[in-house]
Specification:
Radius of gyration: 31 Å
Structural class: alpha/beta
Number of domains: 2
Strand order of the largest sheet: 2-1-3-4
Order of helices and strands: HHEEHEEHHEEHHHEHEHHHHHHH
Shape: elongated
Helix content: 55-70%
Largest sheet: 4 strands, mixed
Amino acid sequence: MSKTGLIIRREYMTRVRKKSFIILTLLTPVFMAAMFVIPVLIMSSKDKEVKRIAVVEEGGSLFKGKIHSTKYLKFEYLDNMPLDTLKKEFDQLGYYAILYISPKLTYIPSAARLISRKQPSLDVVTYIQDALKKEIEREKLLSYHIQNLDKILKEVETDVKLQTIQISATGEEKRTSTGIAMGIAYVGGLLIYMLTFMFGAMVMRGVIEEKTNRIVEVLISSVRPMQLMMGKIIGIALVGLTQFFLWIALTLAIVTAVTGVLMHGPDQGKKIAPASFFSAGNPQSNPLQENTISMEDLSQGEQLLTALRSVNWPLILGSFLIFFLGGYLLYASMFAAVGAAVDSETDTQQFMMPITIPLLIALFIAMGAFQNPDSPVAFWGSLIPYTSPVVMMARLPFGVPLWELILSIVLLFLTFLGTVWFAARIYRTGILMYGKKPSWKELWKWIRYKSF
């Protein structure tokens, strides 16, 4: 085995045997799976507790009988009980909350109050707000003396749920979800940002530790500085890749097991009807089988799972792997150079700025790319190598032309080759320097030294 290979093996085996590696490898998939499963559970589950709400309207009966009860929300209109008395006794009377409506509500939006012991859920608040809003709008329209207003309002009331369909160059349609795309973009960009910093800092700390313990003096006697630096960088890269593949495998296993339980039901095994303008406009022409259901027949949780399954996961995961590897190699070489130039971790601050700023800029551009993935800033941020690993992962779920993806990868790895050359020239000199804090001017001298 070559000397570089021995260093890679040493770095890899030392780190994968650590308890911290094992614990992080096992716990992270649970966290990642929870990010997928918990929203599904929240959207699938409903509060089935029956809630009685006392309605007290001061000085009138405009809203009496207008807030309709549902299966789990029961509204009871009280006319003769003072509000102060009701606030003291509504627990004993079995009420969940008191809805107090002031006569000023028609022109003061905050003139209604929901009084309860516990913070009411968003569903309850939203339902009451919508009911009050619609009734106020109805009363204002009545002032125009329009005949059959209730019938007209009922006929014109419309609920629109926009479905997004992505069509390929061959005409193939695929149902998509903008919310899912934003979630994947956010998680992908943030993970590359965090992992690049985490593993890059691991390289820097390893170099500093070997330097302060004088281990490097023994190593340099038998290997070249370039071999030592690349062995350390590649060894830790393999640790990161091992952890990444374990995360993906364990996360998929957990998500598959949990979603298999969640999707178990009367509609299990039914296929989701593909979106089609033709079939939507003419139901009789829909050539679907009996075991096919549409998205509208599914619960919100099932719709979320269906949207997740429509994602091109091989492209997302493959691109994540490539950009993580390229971004890590690029920044790890700089981290290694910084570690070789200093004697302790506290001395690294003056050299960390050129490493930190591009990654922070990449994170800020990625946040903007969620809203406008095709903006000029997002486009150039996904091509410039020092920001492309984070920004490209934020753009990819929204669709990126193949030439942009290939160009970004090529530029990233070419820049790595150039950066590692500069880093190696700093590393070869700094690794044996002790007791002196180098300046930027001195680092430039190290780079210009001709001997290697």
